Amino acid sequence: MNSGKFVSPEVEIALKRQKARATLSSLFVSLLAIVLVGLILFYISIAGINLVQPDIVTYQGSSQKEDNLEKKELNPAIQRKPSSPSSSMAKVIAANTVSPTAIPVPEVIDPVESVDFGDGDDFGSGWGSGGGGNGGGGASFFGQKSNAERIAFVIDYSGSMAAQNRVGIMKKELSKSLDGLTPGTQFQMIFFAGPVWVAGSEVMVKGQAAHEGNTIKGPDGKTYEWVTSGGAHGFKPRGKVQQASWLQVPSVEGKLGSQKREAISAGKDVLKDSQKVVQETGLVWGTRWKYALEMALDMEPNPQVIYFMTDGSTGSEAMQVARTVGARAKSRGITINCVAMMEPKAHDAMKEMAKRTGGKFTVVEADGKSTEIPLK
């Protein structure tokens, strides 16, 4: 027999299991102890931190009541071109305070010219009203107002305008419209009867029975011939039709150099000469709308607004002309405002043309009073 103790296999297995359980228990207790110590240390460290939040101090300047200044309206559709060296460039002032608006400051190039800063039309009225440079546009004709930059007046100078002082009423209103054109506006006057011509041309119409010798001599010296079948509405051009070009209202004023002053003087003469043409142009036989309206539509660049005034219908073709011309004008974004001078026969066609182009239709009575007719 063996002198040592005999351990059966069953006992040995039980001892190993007990040993394993004891080991696991020891490990688990050790982990719990470590976690507990960690939590205690964390709590001590947190409790020892003195959280002090700094006071936030803000300062606000005293609020002053803003003056209720009247702001002139600036036309956003048009950009003003600089009209003198002293205001040729604008800067924006950067500030460290909040401001509701940015203040434009012109760059001073010539100290001598800029002594009276903000005192002339250069910056003052040009900035405020949009009248300087190309910053403005528009006209009014028999109560029909427009803010366009390019305006064509297509005006009836036929013989029938002599009745009931129609021509006197027309000339007075047209002159008033020219006076009211804002600086920078481009304009032209196209007159018509049987033939059509650019205002200021020499017109020779021999009469309703004359098939030859009806001529228009333009300011450029070129001659344009018209023929007629004998009726008031039978006129048509023989060959090329006269081309209309734009005139422009002077756009700058104030203390400028000699070259600028000469340009302004020339621009003022444009209005003066146009006024003279309105008063001195005589009446001519015949009435036809077609070529007058087409001459306005063919201008380059296109007019934005056409003021069309007549005292008579153009016969059976009136409605067809209204629809054809109206469609062309609409496709180019041109508005046609129509004025009927004491002539009910022209109302339907003129209303149609105005309606198609988004324009207005006005009737002028014998006393000169104008009434806008709703377009339905």
Automatic annotation (TrEMBL):
Transmembrane segments: 24-46
Top-level lineage group: Bacteria
InterPro entries: VWF_A, vWFA_dom_sf
Keywords attached to this entry: Membrane, Transmembrane, Transmembrane helix
Signal peptide start-end: none
Protein name as annotated: VWFA domain-containing protein
Start-end of Basic and acidic residues biased regions: 64-74
